[in-house]
Structure formats: C-alpha cells, structure tokens
Design a protein that fits this description.
This protein starts with a strand and ends with a strand. It has a 7-stranded mixed β-sheet with strand order 5-6-7-3-8-9-12, with helices on both faces. The chain has a 3-stranded antiparallel β-sheet with strand order 2-1-4, covered by helices on one side. α6 runs parallel beside α7. It folds into 2 domains: 141 residues, Rossmann fold (3-Layer(aba) Sandwich); 70 residues, no CATH class. The protein is globular. About 9% of the residues have low confidence. The protein is an alpha/beta fold and 264 residues long.
Amino acid sequence: MAQLTCTNLTLRYGENVLVRGLSFEVNAGDYLCIVGENGSGKSTLVRTLLHLQAPAEGKIEAGDGLYANEIGYLPQQTLVQRDFPASVREIVLSGCQSRMGLRPFYNKEEKALAQENMEKMDITHLADRCYRELSGGQQQRVLLARALCATRKLLFLDEPVSGLDPKATAEMYELIERLNRKEHITIIMVSHDIHAALRYATHILHIEENVFFGTKYDYIKSPIGRYFMKLHHGKMDIRSGKSDKEKDLSRIPAMNTNMVKGGE
C-alpha cells in the first residue's frame, strides 16, 4: 500500500496555476526526487503535501499507517534561520514537539531520541555549540537530525544541499542515501541537481508543462528526461553519477503529452 497518493492535483501560486492533473504515489522505501526549472511548482507541491496549503483541486491520501505527525521536514534555510541563537541540542530536541501533546517539557525518551539522531548525523561533539556558529554543512546536519526526531517513516527535503560546498554536498547526499537504504526511511526531495537525482533516487517526478512520473530508468529513456539532461550537460551514467557530454542527445522527440508516465 502506498504511503502517499496524489490524485489529479492542481497547484496554484497566488492566481497562477502551476500544475494541473498531477497524479502519483510514493511507497514505503522509495527515494523520490522532484525536479524541474525554477518556478515550476516543486516547493509549492511540497508545501501542499505537508498540508501547509491546500491544493486548488484534487486529493492527497496517506496510507500504510502513516500519520501527519510522523513526517519529517527539512525546509530551505533563510538567512534569519541560519543566525538562530540556540544550541544544537535545543534545535534537534525541537523536532520532538509533535510527539509532546500538551506536555511543557521533553521526556526521557525524547531526549534519548535526539541523542540517537545526533549520533547518526555525527554531531554529538557539537551538542552544546550555538547553531549560528556552525558551518553550512554542520547546520544542515543539525536540521536533518531535527527532522528525524519527527519521523521514522518519511522525510521531505527541500533543496537540502543548497549553498553547501562540494565536500559538504557529497556528505549530505551520502547521509540521505544511508537513511533511505539502511534505515528504510522514504525520501521525497526537491532538487535542481539532476546528476544527484539520477544517482540516488528510485523515482523521478519532473514538473514542467509536461509532467513525468516513474522510475529513474524510465526517466532517462523518456523525451522529457533526455531533453532535461541535455540542458544540464549531457547524458547520465546513473551508476556513477557522472555526465557524458560526448553522447549525442540532439535528436529529442517532441513532447506533446501533458502527463507522461514511466513505461508508457
């Protein structure tokens, strides 16, 4: 049974319709990357899936025992958030708030969970440091640990490597892959990095005028996938994550369908 099923969604930003007729499902253990150009509706979709805004049309259904308070979310950081004056431990613990109900204090289990997730992110030595003193990569590890305190099932990540240097970017992708492969946490990630999407994801949702949803293997064979990879420096070896600029992708079939599904 799918953890998340979306049927005929229409998404708006203000008065503008971004996407119509969007349907897809996410199963337990999937690693879904949402790709597309700026302004295509990727972040709007994530906010809609998190029930932070309502779809203009269509429905979103949770299944497989997933509840709204069992979803972790790592949003894009703002400059104000990067300068937040709290300790690492306090920020990670705040991810447990959805578990607390009306209790004013964290209990022993929640403190143990925060410690466990700091260990997973290798930030226990930073526990008493002020968050705003950390590097960008360290801050993202803190926020990922915080998101893990809210879930053991499903993580939403909105541009999790934005602004990071190459080393921190590679480390973040490896951490996310480990959570998916070893912890069996379902990942839904918004990304501009098509190379990383094809290296790590199991499924691709490409939002443009023409929408694709399917496995990454079907995506690289689809007209919209081949066209997008051409725009982003050539064909991809999905085993190594490296592009092949020498491949000839000039003959791209016309894309006339509004919704393209993998294997069709």
